[in-house]
Design brief:
Length: 484
């Protein structure tokens, strides 16, 4: 039984979620497919500038829309508010044409306008780079799930894909094939020292390139774009697999790096100083397992483990098969650190002390082991599940779901958890959070029907594997190693 509490009645109570239209909701029971979740519980998010406590009425949560695993599938429009408007209309807030009803009849009726926000109104004015990449990924998932390819062939959709690709593939001053972004441009949308080439953006970028290549209509105008896309895929996969990967062997290699090497065949290409290796990493790295580091720039490696970037590298095939298994090995080996009382740490470890003060600007929301600074986010359950299913290791996700089930419903579905062992509900966590409920449901139902994960998974492309092998064999560092 799936439980939710009602804020509206301002009392503690457990309610069985009502069947809405023809779709059922089954929380802990085994189901054949993900049904449409329409949870009539109070959402502690602001809607139209008003919070639930401001009397904005009951907020309906359609939490499975993002992955389109529900029985009735809706196209993933970038700005999609049809359901919200319909629900408000049913509650008497809107007229049939979408205009807002005014309490005072002396005011003229106004029409709602969709005003896209590219970060101009965001806290800190952060640019949501990941949103366009997710749109391409979910667009492909919609087509695979529904079998309806007509939306993918629409001119406006094809134009949208091309616009995103041209923006991401544009020439610049950057020396690397990775995407250069500012701080706070992905799920971590506050200052956390991830500016540059954060892994999460690179994993989504790689995934979006693969998905876009599948969906782009073959035409003369797309030839140059597809050629640039293919070249970037090869360079990006080589760069991430070769230079972002860290395990005990690679860590020992970095520990013995020589610096200030000037040549094409330099081993320490990014002039990384061995003293950058943090003491915590020396003790933390397991004998078996490894992961992709959080960021790489000249003379800088961010050794923090970022969950979403690593998991999506597995899902998208950015990580090799061996690396993907090693990432899951590390999660199992460091279960008490990364999962603990609630899956999953958004990153590990937390920034603390003077490092926290300098990097975050003493951000009171990102205090150590809270929010984006190594807080625990239940929504990451579904990415862990897809990664586990792809590598034929679903038992890892099943174990994490069992951990979450111990308290997430009782705690009223918080946005995130605090403390090193995830023992406290986040100090500013929203309750009945859409993506916390969605993360759990998608994980639960994918475990019941693993074949549904295929819509999100991309396998290694044989052409990319061949090109990657050629680049490895031509890599001066590899040649130098064999001569020794």
């Amino acid at each position: 039984m799936f439980n939710c509490s009602s804020f509206l009645q301002n009392r503690i109570g457990i309610h069985r979620l009502k069947r809405t239209r023809d779709y059922g909701l089954f929380g802990n029971s085994t189901v054949d497919r993900l049904q449409l979740l329409t949870c009539k519980c109070q959402q502690a998010e602001s809607v139209g500038g008003l919070t639930a406590d401001d009397g904005n009425g009951t907020w309906f949560v359609d939490s499975s829309r993002a992955l389109h695993l529900n029985g009735v599938i809706n196209p993933p429009n970038v700005l999609e508010f049809e359901d919200v408007q319909q629900l408000k209309q049913e509650n008497g807030d809107l007229t049939s044409n979408g205009a807002v009803k005014q309490e005072n009849e002396s005011f003229p009726t106004t029409e709602e306008v969709l005003d896209p926000d590219f970060g101009e109104a965001a806290i800190g004015r952060v640019a949501p780079v990941d949103s366009g990449l997710w749109w391409i990924i979910l667009l492909r998932a919609y087509g695979k799930c529904s079998g309806d390819l007509s939306i993918l062939e629409r001119i406006d959709v094809q134009t949208g894909i091309k616009m995103i690709l041209r923006l991401c593939l544009a020439d610049g001053f950057d020396m690397f094939p990775t995407l250069l972004v500012t701080d706070g441009s992905c799920m971590i949308d506050r200052r956390m020292g991830i500016h540059g080439h954060p892994l999460e953006i690179q994993a989504l970028f790689y995934s979006a390139l693969l998905c876009a290549r599948e969906m782009l209509a073959p035409e003369d105008g797309s030839a140059d774009l597809i050629r640039a896309l293919n070249n970037r895929l090869v360079a990006l996969s080589f760069h991430i697999r070769e230079y972002y990967w860290i395990d005990l062997r690679k860590l020992n290699e970095i520990y013995r790096y020589k610096t200030e090497e000037y040549s094409y065949d330099a081993v320490n290409k990014f002039n990384i100083y061995p003293d950058q290796i943090s003491p915590w990493l020396v003790e933390w790295m397991p004998n078996q397992g490894g992961y992709l580091i959080g960021n790489l720039q000249p003379a800088h490696m961010d050794f923090r483990f970022f969950s979403l970037g690593n998991l999506w590298s597995v899902v998208s095939g950015l990580a090799t098969i061996d690396q993907s298994h090693a990432i899951l090995d590390l999660i199992e080996a460091k279960w008490t650190d990364l999962v603990a009382g609630m899956p999953l740490k958004i990153c590990y470890p937390a920034l603390e002390g003077q490092e926290w003060q300098i990097i975050t600007g003493s951000d009171p929301k990102n205090t150590p082991w809270s929010y984006h600074n190594a807080g625990s986010w239940p929504t990451l359950l579904w990415q862990l599940t897809v990664a586990g299913i792809k590598m034929n290791r679903p038992e890892i996700a099943a174990r994490a779901v069992e951990v979450a089930e111990r308290c997430i419903s009782r705690d009223k579905w918080p946005e995130y958890y605090d403390t090193k062992r995830a023992r406290f509900i986040g100090k500013q966590a929203r309750l009945f959070q859409t993506w916390s409920i969605a993360g759990y449901l998608v994980a639960k139902l994918l475990l019941a029907d693993p074949s549904a994960a295929k819509m999100l998974i991309t396998e290694e492309d044989p052409e990319l594997v061949n090109a990657f092998s050629c680049m490895i064999s031509a890599n001066p560092r590899r040649k130098r190693g064999r001569k020794n």
